[in-house]
Structure formats: C-alpha cells, structure tokens
Design goal:
19% of the residues lie in helices and 39% in strands. The strands form two sheets. Strands 2-9-8-4-5 form a five-stranded mixed β-sheet, with no helix packed on it. A four-stranded antiparallel β-sheet has the order 1-3-7-6, with no helix packed on it. With 134 residues, the chain is an alpha+beta fold.
Length: 134
C-alpha cells in the first residue's frame, strides 16, 4: 500500500509542476490578453490573384488582412520595389489593393506583404509568387 501512495504522490507532483510551467509560459508574452507585452499577430489571406497565377505587367492584386491594429503599417513590395496601396476598411478586416509595377515583365515576382505589429515579435509577413508575362 505504501508503494501505491508513493506513486500517486509522485504523479500528482508531476502533473502539478507541468501546470505551473505552462502558466509561466503565459507570463513572458504568450497568449494572455491581460499581459501588455502579449500580441495578436495579423493574418493575411484571400490572395488575389492566386499564387503561381500568370498575370500581365501592371496587373491589380488584393488581399485581406485580419486583426490588424493599424492599417497604415501595411507595406507591400515586389522585387524590392515598394508598391503603393489603397486600403478598403471592412467590419472585421481590411482589403489591400495594389498594382504590380509596369516594368516587371517576363519574370516571376514575389509579392510580399508585411504588417508591423505593436511589438517587433508581433510582425506578420506573407508572400506569394506570380508569373508576369511579357
């Protein structure tokens, strides 16, 4: 009977320490919304045109950004060329519209969207490759 009690006490101690360690993770900027150093990263989706699409130079593109705290902090580029964008505000997200540079022809280019968060660890980046015709 003593061995059974010892095993049970050991298991309880192990479980308790696991919960304590998991709680400590939240304290250094995890998913705790009450922690000022915690962040919610933006999500980028609904890429249009779809990745690997073949498009003409100067083609329009768009994508949605969810959970963005400041749409002015969205930057878009292709082949290290900053692309001017317009922001369309919706209820739960924003839609970013832009046009590929006319001088990108006969090549593949990755459109890169960057969203700066409240803290550097909260930044988001998404890119998708487009094939640009002559």
């Amino acid at each position: 009977m003593n061995k059974l009690n010892l095993v049970l006490v050991g298991l309880l101690a192990l479980i308790n320490s696991s919960f304590a360690l998991a709680g400590a993770h939240v304290e250094h900027g995890g998913k705790n919304p009450n922690n000022p150093s915690a962040c919610k990263t933006a999500r980028i989706g609904k890429l249009n045109p779809a990745p690997l699409s073949e498009v003409a130079p100067g083609s329009e593109f768009s994508f949605k950004v969810f959970d963005v705290h400041n749409p002015k902090l969205i930057e878009v580029s292709a082949k290290n060329i900053v692309i001017p964008t317009t922001i369309e505000h919706k209820t739960d997200f924003v839609v970013v519209h832009g046009k590929l540079p006319e001088n990108l022809k006969g090549m593949a280019a990755r459109v890169i969207a960057k969203v700066k968060g409240k803290l550097p660890k909260c930044n988001t980046e998404e890119g998708w490759l487009l094939k640009i015709t002559e």
